[in-house]
Amino acid sequence: MTTHILRHGETHYSRQYLVNGDPTRAIPLSKDGVLSCGLVWHTLPLRQVSTWLSSEFPRARQTASRLMGVPEPGPVVDARLNELDYGDFEGGPFLKYASWLQQHGGRCRPPGACESQREGIERMLVGLQAAVEHPSPRVIVCHGLLVSVLHWYRERSAGDPMPLFFPEAPYVQPISFEDEDLLRCVKSLLADIAAEPESDPGPRCDAENSRAEEELDVATFDRVNHPHAQRDLPDA
């Protein structure tokens, strides 16, 4: 009973490091994103997959359809696997959102958003938990943040707190779990989030402080942009 979880292919938004958390925006895969879908055939036994799942986003559904090899029937769509809601940062540079996130923390909702980063991660994890109810083997096409969190879980040391910024997830490269391990992972991560303080130190999450215009400091900029740094990149 196995689940293979992967990030969708590249889009022109993700190439430019722009954020997209609105599934109604038609942002398709780039040419490179389409080509990358063909590489997974050398990694996974795709013809043996019993259940395909994806988020609501066009880029995730397009990736799943290309991996399936046929346009219909499409994947099972689960909105719990959606990308974060970026609120007023929608369509803008990731660095502006990252600056705001650094200032306000993972439990604060961005202006105009319906969820915080931590609430979004919790939602995605619940979607993963529900996926095991479908026939196995399964392939889940989702977004970079969820895949990054799963990689962090596997690589972390005991007692490590969940960071704000995670290593960037590669496009269309699966991370695989047996059901028991996946459920254990989800339970552990949900417990980690629940154990965090209810509010983060620093500025309040009110409208006056919501738009973080100051630049990221050099260390943070390197952490977000360096190819081997920790980063929670936009997932468009």
TrEMBL record:
Classification via SUPFAM superfamilies: Phosphoglycerate mutase-like (SSF53254)
Any Pfam family: His_Phos_1
Signal peptide: none
InterPro entries linked: His_Pase_superF_clade-1, His_PPase_superfam
Basic and acidic residues composition bias: residue spans: 201-213, 223-236
Domain of life, per lineage: Bacteria
Region annotation (Disordered) ranges: 196-236
Protein name: Phosphoglycerate mutase
Natural source organism: Streptomyces noursei
Lineage: Bacteria, Bacillati, Actinomycetota, Actinomycetes, Kitasatosporales
